[in-house]
Structure formats: C-alpha cells, structure tokens
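[Solved] Which block belongs to which protein?

Original post:
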Amino acid sequence: MAWISDAILWLYDHQRWVFVVLLALCVLQLFLFWRAQTHLRYTAFSIERENIVAARNRSLTLAVLWAALMAAALLSNTFLAPNLTDLFGAAPTPTIPLPTSTPAPTVTPELVLPGLESPTPEAALGPTPSRTPVPAGGAGCLFPLATITSPIPGAILAGEVEVRGAANIENFAFYVVEISTLGENWLTVITSQPDSEGHMLPVIDGVLGKWDTRLQEPGDYALRLVVYDAAGNHPVPCTIPITIAPLIEPTDTPFP
C-alpha cells in the first residue's frame, strides 16, 4: 500500500499543475463536442453523421472523465492527504508552519531618584533599571510662577523645614509639595491652605508650607512643587535634590 500513499503525496505536492492539465483537457473535449454538434446539424449523409456522432460522444465521455479526475484529485487532497497516518500508517502531509510574531516583553521604566534603589523583581525581564538622579541644579524650576526658592538644590535638611517659593499660575487651583519615594511614587508633605472662605490661596514669593523631615528616613531624596490650574493641568514640576540628615538632639554636658 506504500505506492498508494506515495501517489497521494505526489498528487498533493503537484496539485496545481494537475488541476491545470485536467482542466485544459476537459475544456478541449467540450470544444470538440460543441464543434461535432455544430457539424451534425449540417450533415445529410448517414455515414458521415455516424462518424460525427461517434466523435461527439467520445468528446463528451472524455470531458466527463477529466472532470471526474479533477473531482477525485480534489477529494484526495482534502480528505486523504491530511490523514495518511490514520489510513495507511504513512507520515502525515507536511504542513509548513507560518511564522508567528512574538511580542517582546514590555518593560516599564522606573524613575530611580537619588539615594533610593528601585526594587528589582526576581523574574524581571530586560535591562536592569539604572539610577536616574535629579540634576544637581534641579529641574523645571525656571518658571517663576511655579518654583521652589528655598531650600536650594543639594541642601542638607534636618528637623522642621520652611519651604518657600511661588505658586501663582493663571487660573490657579492649588499646589502640593511632594517628596520622592521608590520608583515614580511621590508622597505629599505640604498642601496649599484655604482662606476663611475655603478658597485656595496662591503664593507669590512666600512660604509654601512647613515640613517635618524627621518623618522620613535620612538619605537622598527629591523634593518637588506641582501647581495645578482649574482644569487640572500643571507646568513642569520644579524638582530639586535634597539630603535629609539625622537630627542630632542636644545633650546636656555636665560641668566638672
């Protein structure tokens, strides 16, 4: 039975040319049938009519034969070739695998601020996050209507600190002063204060608020001011690097 499976595989591999040849033969026989049928209408002699009828029937028979072979080839390629293993124990018809697009793993970058290492998941893919310090002179602090003037970039802070600056953009709504935590998380340490009527007050070169640095662990941080308008928009936050130092409590020194 091996020759049967070989024939089915050969037919499957050359199916395009097989169908083209069979279709051409079928069309040719139909043309000969049509021509014989036309000549038959104008032939009066009995012997000649018998020859034309025989040629016509032969062409019709061959046309039906070629059409049947095309149908058989179609059935073989559709039902037999894919199931050779089950039918004859032969290897199945090889199927060429289509290339698939495998998306690369998406790595969400994290802003790593001074002194704070970004957590690295055990199964993280892609490059290891690098430290991205705030520039020594700060960033985004050139806009005079939304800036921090004190403390200055690189300041070493301890205890309670007064943060000064300006928060007076057009359509002012409110402002917040935040300190960096891990990644891109920020912790609010100062919020704008309302007046007696509940309206948030802008600040023009004044005190934005006071912040107790003892609430954070000593180390390097980033401090930023975000000023929002009534539509929820804000200019680029003014961000400065700072260092929180441990507060040294004074001790009484006994006199001798």
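(Second protein starts here: sequence line, then its structure tokens.)
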Amino acid sequence: MITIEKDCFSIPQICESGQCFRLDLTAENFYELTAADRHLKMQIQREMGNEGEPERIIFFCTQEEYDEFWRAYFDLDTRYEDYQAAVDPADSYLRLAAWFGRGIRILRQDPWEMVITFILSQQNNIPRIKGLIRALCEKYGKKRTAPDGTVYDTFPDAQSLARASEEELRAMKLGYRSRYICGTAAMIAEGRVDLGKLRKMEYQEAREELMKLPGIGGKVADCICLFGLHQLDAFPVDTHIKKVLDGWYKGEFPFERYKGYAGIMQQYIFYYDLKCPRGETIML
C-alpha cells in the first residue's frame, strides 16, 4: 500500500471531471480504476479540506507499480499549485473555478482508449458512456486478474474492434457511433493513422491527424489531445464551456495568458459549471 498526501490531488474530483470513464466510486470512500492492463483500488481516508489541505489517499499497489505506472498516470510529479497561482487575480470567475476544482489533474491516459471513449461521448451523458465502455471491454477486451483476486476487463485493442461488425456494435446500443468505431478501428489497425507518432507531434498537427479518423471533429480531437496526449494547449469546447465563454468572456478566452496550460483552465471551468450548485455563493 502507498499513502499519498499531495496538494491539488483529489480522486473524487478527477472521477467527476469528465476525462476518465473507467474510474468509479465502488463503496463509501473507495474507488477502483482500470487503465491500460492494470487495475487499482484506492481508499480516501481524508477528503481535501476547505482550507486546501491535501487529501489522504491509499493506493492498494506496490511501490514498484506506483513508481512504474501510477505516479505518471496521475501526473503526480507536476506542481498544479503553480497553475492555480497563475490564474489572473482580476478574473473572478476563473479564480472561483480553479479553487473549486483544485484537486483536478490531467491524467496521462492511453490515446487509443481516448479515441474510442470520446467517439462514444458524442451526444451522450457520463453514466451511459461508462456503460457503453464497460460493455465493449467485457465483449472485446481481455480478462485479467489483479493481485488481490479482482477480475477485470482490459480495453479492447484496435485489432479486436476492427474485427467487430457494425451490426454487432449497434446491437450493443452504440447507435450511429458504431460506424465511426468500425472505421476508426480499421484505420488504426491498418496503420493508416499511427497513434504512436502523435506523441511526437505538436498540438495542431496531432489535432489535424486525429480528424482524419471517422467521427472525430475538432471538439473530440481536442479531448484526445488533452486527455490522451497530454497536450495542455488543447481546449475542448462543449456546451458547458461555450456557455461560460459566451457569458463571462464574450466569446474570447485569454488563451495567450495561459499558453501551454489552457487545457487545465478548461477543466477547472468545466468542473465548476458542472458541479457548483446554481445560485450558491462561494467565498475565497
């Protein structure tokens, strides 16, 4: 077991931030996460306090696995308190949003998983996205057993999904997204788009390459860039973000001020608009 107490790190906030769909609350104060071919159980022993004290989290894994995988996955070597400090003091909305979601970190997730995940996310809600991903993993992924005996399903690889028919996917309630997934899986499996090369590309180049895949427009490409490639300039605009940009920034977010990490500000805004009760006043 590994005990983590780190500033700006909250599993509950990350769970509800819309970037990861295989992280779940399984019992009071217990979370489980499947990523790549690994499975992790976590326990929250102390929630992040109102004054910003670090959350105490138990990772049920070895020190070796933590150092080898989970530390980088949760981006734990990055000082997110520096991003908090960089928020414009005159921007009252963003100051509140950043404080409210200060436990969010941008996870370093698998690009292939993010491609399929955010194709599924289109015109969908979080519980349904989770259900569709679970069904895909159960049918096309591989069974694995964690050291504690937990049996879980890995995310299906491109070759496995390329062998699935559109009819099979439609029968799983994937709807019109079935055609996109079949086409995308085929292109990846055949090497027509090389996800490995995307990691070496600049943000705009990677975004354009992703948009060659069926069903991937600008917003979905930005989600993949941010959550799968860790390109922090990516700034996905969904209905939550558009509403805030129109209402608070007159459609003009100060991207130049946040160059190199605008995507982190996007997550603060998204989470705040999603979770903060309407009409509630928060005092800093």
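Accepted answer:
You had them paired correctly. Confirming on the second one: The two ends are 35 Å apart (CA to CA).
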